[in-house]
Amino acid sequence: MADIRAELRMCRCGNLVPHNNRVTGPPAHIRWLEQGSGLLFLRGCLFCEDTKARFMWTKVGIEREAGLWVSVVCLVPESRSHKEDVCLQLFVTGFKLRQMLQNLDDSASAASSMEVTDRIASLEQRVQMQEDEIQLLKSALADVVRRLNLSEEQQAMGTRRGPTKARPMIATLPIRPTVNNGTVLPKKSSLPSPSGSGSRKDGSTAANKSTVRRTNSNEHVGTLTRKDSGDSKGNRTRAGSTGSSSSSKRSDSKQRDPVFNAEEGYVKMYLKGRPVTMFMPKDLVESYCLESRGELPSNKLKLDWVYGYRGRDCRSNLYLLPTGETVYFIASVVVLFNVDEQLQRHYTGHTDDIKCLAVHPDKITIATGQVAGTSSDGKQLAPHVRVWDSVSLNTLHILGSGFFDRGLVCLAFSKSNGGNTLCVVDDSNDHVLSVWDWQREDRLAETKCSNESVFAADFHPTDSNIIVTCGKSHLYFWTLEKGGTLVKKQGLFEKQEKPKFVLCVNFAENGDTITGDSSGNILVWGKGTNRISHVIPGAHEGSIFALCMLRNGTLVSGGKDRRLVSWDTSYQQIQVVEVPELFGPIRTIAEGRRETVLIGTTKNFVLQGSLDGEFLPITQGHIDELWGLAVHPRKSQFLTCGYDRQVCLWDSSTHQLIWTKSLEDTAQSAGFHPSGAVVAIGTQTGRWQVLDTDSKDLVSVHTDGNEQLSVMRYGPDGNFLAIGSHDNYIYVYAVAENGRKYSRVGKCSGHSSFITHLDWSVDSQYLVSNSGDYEILYWIPSVCKQVVSVETTRDIDWATYTCTLGFQVFGLWPDGSDGTDINAACRSNDGSLLATGDDFGKVHLFSYPCSQFRAPSHVYGGHSSHVTNVTFLHDDSCLVSTGGKDMSVVQWRIV
Description:
Blueprint: E1 2-10, E2 16-18, E3 31-36, E4 39-44, H1 49-54, E5 60-64, E6 69-76, E7 90-93, H2 97-160, E8 219-221, E9 259-261, E10 266-271, E11 274-279, H3 282-285, E12 301-307, E13 319-320, E14 325-330, E15 333-338, E16 343-347, E17 354-359, E18 365-370, E19 373-374, E20 380-381, E21 385-389, E22 395-399, E23 408-413, E24 421-426, E25 432-437, E26 442-448, E27 454-459, E28 466-471, E29 474-481, E30 485-490, E31 502-507, E32 513-517, E33 522-525, E34 532-536, E35 544-549, E36 555-559, E37 563-567, E38 573-578, E39 586-591, E40 596-601, E41 606-610, E42 615-619, E43 626-631, E44 637-642, E45 646-651, E46 656-662, E47 667-672, E48 678-683, E49 687-692, E50 698-703, E51 709-714, E52 720-725, E53 730-736, E54 741-748, E55 755-760, E56 767-771, E57 776-780, E58 785-787, H4 790-793, E59 822-827, E60 833-838, E61 843-847, E62 858-860, E63 867-872, E64 878-883, E65 889-894
Parallel strand pairs: 5-7
Antiparallel strand pairs: 1-2, 1-6, 3-4, 5-6, 8-9, 9-10, 10-11, 12-65, 13-14, 14-15, 15-16, 17-18, 18-21, 19-20, 21-22, 23-24, 24-25, 25-26, 27-28, 28-29, 29-30, 31-32, 32-33, 33-34, 35-36, 36-37, 37-38, 39-40, 40-41, 41-42, 43-44, 44-45, 45-46, 47-48, 48-49, 49-50, 51-52, 52-53, 53-54, 55-56, ...
């Protein structure tokens, strides 16, 4: 028999691993060979399956030395078969035999289970990542093919068709100008007047001529060199957003400068290389100068109120501060809401989606983490943590710019050392766990946390060197050792069935760790150990999302079953409160003032109540992408609707929800009747319905086409409703009985792409429309006929201006735009301001008219996704904007 001596170390998990090799992962994963006495000796965990398969261990002598180091003599018989069972005889000095055997047995089973599970999970994740990448490539390729086919079809149609009202040939140009967004139309021998009578005679037609447009001596090319402006200094800075692909929209090639033709009185600009011709009013032609610089508006916007809360996909983001303010976030804004005084303050230092929040033990300092983004010029905005003062709202420190990947998912301050350290988990593939001395902005340690999702991370309340993380298929206890090393110890479920997800973690007064999981169980882990000391089986029906330890020692749990359960110090159930289904499952729990509790739900409600009473909402919002926005014509009210099938009417003065109504279809647009008595809602299925504003009762239902209805716009006199659809048509309805009776007049046909915006003339006789291919067309809605005469349309006075293409607003487009990154525009009711919302999460405020190229604007952040809509209240006291994927509604005060 050959003697082989190896120095081993007993891990905290119970496994024995080599002394002279540093272990950075689970011991069962360490494998290496060493030559000794003519035999190959496998060094690693003594109880792994590989060791059993290759060697026979007949005797292991264990002697307790200083700390955890032991000396082991292994006697290995050369003649024994590798198939025979392992026989172990343990001689323990200074150690309890029973305890040692138990540790060894447990470690053996845990190591084997860990190895198989981790390998399978790693393979599954790799396969899923590859499938996601393949799907992404397929989608991108399909989109390219679709665009190419569409382009070829349009070119083929352009060569086949002769000049028509909607699509003339470029070669057949009239001597007199006509209106069709830069393409020239043949003159009509007659044109229906708004009253339905009258005609216009044409001395000559373009069909008889084949003239080529000459460059007029009065056609000037702009040579503007000033930069896009956004602040008072004229600098436009626009933050990127998640959930939007607009970051790469800007063309790398220089955009063609606009052209001013003084003879015919138009400005021609270019979007994605396509000309857009906009005729100006006659009285401006002589005095207009393309090179003149626009002026910043004297008014500014001030963030007044933010509606909504992000509870659908975020955790541990609701706290009560000593000031009496409830702190939470939505989009890129942290809201500090004083419920008693109905006042909000806002921290606006972030540039993109905030995903996590932590409060320092001093209850004043707050840390928030955001995702990565992209600026309007294509530059990457790094994910980072901002540490700030909740009293002054000043930023104190910024951590991790350039270190974190994708975004941040978990934040926590230490408790026992005065909150000097901050642990952070990012959203990279490895979900890196890092520990920071945040006051020195110094990273103390970092390590890979898990390949799977991480849902929570927190410091132990009595030991600042211990961190607990949990997530999919794991619960880890980390120890921060000297030298900046994080040592991991996995929670051992032993006889308890391992849950698929460990969703939340908290701590008892005695230092025990408490977890809630997807099986509905609450598990208690003994202080300083990785073993279960107590189980509350079936504490909830379904996943447990939140645990909160109250000051009196009561544990409160909440989850998918919408139940709020309180437990005493012996983990005996005290009472149960069920939250109504309207509010949704409980996502997070926080202790409130006196006997109250705060709850954040997955349907984006913040509730306040007591454990023995009912809960009422203090904050609520939408739970899916938001597009529809309309303001009441006479009251300080506005309406929102979106893909969550919810229609909400808000009071802008009290910041309260007046009513909400559920729809069968996802909503896209909305518009109030001029009387304010009814409001029309357009959906994504072609169906639209009219609701009574006071009672929210259904008044009328209609269907036009089967595509989304992007615009619902009543005429100023209330006698017509125009509906812009994605099927390229504008449907017109006659309206009677104060918005309660509808009869279809017809549909306006002429656009070759979907309708994006509509506006009515002051006298309700004309419509102007924009489409997805940058067309500007004019209509007589009473007969659904297109107007092609420039002389008829150039001096029309428009009741509203929400179109993004037109002479009065073309200055809102930034240089290099492709025509899709401005989603909405709105002129103030007094005609002095123009507000826009873009794809980069910014709201711009221009002077109106905005008819100078690259007009300067004030720029405001707050949204983290594309701003889908903007509109002024009826008295111009406030501007309301809606975010798309950030699901927020922001109210701005005009100052």
